[in-house]
């Protein structure tokens, strides 16, 4: 019974410039660790092969060091790897793949599917039908050729492709590199291993996207997995097992604060996230000065635990209460300034007014108030 591991969209060489340097470096390193984890998983699960359905590299300009590290990370699994070029690393006449070959970085057990055709893995019981992208965007279905490919009797027919299954994915990617939704049936494939959609997704019982093994964006689409596929023999239905491989969990929250309990619930949810979290938090609504202090304290606590947390608060208006102002002893002219800044938060200079109000509040705090935080 052939058993193989299906993965895709490694995007090696990707950078995370919008993060702090330390966090960005950790996210990059996690992608190399993901390849090592895939190799161990293939060994532990007694897979006969590993199929990578495109976008091994994030760009043709991946450094020589990145290229070498990618192939070094595969060494824990000695069986065959089949790697397909995707839209980010298309098999151009001069590409990241040809550079890898010149570097001598590609191990003997790694098959680069740089041309359309069939890679026979007879010992493993598999015939891999390949549809590599030879340019970043195509407008015809390259998998149509699968129906014309003859494969030896007794070998399981597995298609390997990178693109958008038409009519079944998000509209914004339903354009270039099209793949017919009935390709597996039309081309008598036992399984069609796809890449491009970064989340794990079953198209039909013979067609799956594995998703990326390590999340790299905030879209909630079941990323961070690999698939172990068992097929009893030609014509048999595949048995697909989804295996979590990701290290970091990405969360993107949009929250509106209106009352004190909203803030308390938000901080509690943050505290319940695992340390491996990458969080993008955007807040709007109203918050008191006391609530602002509580929020900043809570963020400083989880900032030390999480891999990364970024909080956008420019649309969160400070709304000092009478108690806030009384605690600041901001009567007379200072009280009038606070009220003016409070009103100006709704205007064109809203962000500046908010910052000014926060700075003024911090300056007015007494040492005793600060000590009591």
From TrEMBL:
The keyword Hydrolase is assigned to this record: yes
Domain Calcineurin-like phosphoesterase: 3-94
Keywords linked to the UniProt accession: Exonuclease, Hydrolase, Nuclease
Species, as recorded: Marinobacter vinifirmus
Name used for this protein in its record: DNA repair exonuclease
GO molecular function (one): exonuclease activity
């Amino acid at each position: 019974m052939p058993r193989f591991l299906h993965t895709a969209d490694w995007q090696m060489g990707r950078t995370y410039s919008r993060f702090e340097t330390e966090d960005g470096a950790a996210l990059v390193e996690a992608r190399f660790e993901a390849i090592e984890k895939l190799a161990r998983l293939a060994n532990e699960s007694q897979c006969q092969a590993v199929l990578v359905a495109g976008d091994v590299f994030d760009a043709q300009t991946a450094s020589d060091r990145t290229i070498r590290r990618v192939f070094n990370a595969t060494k824990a699994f000695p069986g065959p790897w089949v790697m397909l070029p995707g839209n980010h690393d298309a098999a151009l006449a001069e590409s990241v793949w040809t550079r890898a070959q010149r570097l001598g970085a590609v191990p003997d057990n790694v098959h680069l599917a740089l041309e359309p055709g069939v890679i026979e893995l007879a010992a493993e019981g598999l015939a891999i039908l390949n549809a590599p992208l030879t340019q970043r965007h195509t407008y015809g279905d390259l998998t149509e050729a699968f129906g014309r490919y003859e494969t030896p009797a007794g070998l399981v027919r597995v298609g390997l492709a990178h693109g958008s299954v038409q009519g079944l994915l998000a509209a914004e990617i339903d354009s270039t590199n099209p793949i017919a939704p009935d390709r597996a049936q039309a081309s008598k494939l036992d399984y069609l291993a796809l890449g491009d959609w970064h989340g794990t997704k079953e198209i039909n019982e013979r067609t799956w996207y594995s998703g990326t093994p390590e999340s790299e964006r905030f879209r909630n689409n079941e990323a961070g997995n690999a698939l172990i596929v068992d097929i009893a023999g030609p014509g048999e239905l595949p048995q697909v097992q989804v295996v979590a491989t990701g290290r970091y969990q990405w969360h993107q929250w949009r929250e509106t604060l209106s009352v004190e309990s909203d803030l308390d619930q938000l901080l509690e949810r943050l505290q319940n996230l695992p340390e491996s979290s990458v969080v993008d938090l955007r807040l709007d609504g109203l918050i008191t000065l006391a609530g602002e202090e509580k929020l900043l304290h809570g963020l400083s606590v989880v900032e030390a635990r999480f891999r990364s947390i970024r909080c956008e608060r420019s649309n969160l208006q400070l709304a000092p209460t009478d108690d806030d102002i009384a605690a600041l002893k901001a009567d007379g002219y200072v009280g009038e300034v606070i009220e003016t800044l409070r009103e100006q938060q709704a205007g064109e200079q809203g962000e500046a007014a908010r910052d000014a109000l926060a700075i003024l509040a911090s300056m007015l705090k007494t040492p005793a108030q600060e000590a009591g935080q």
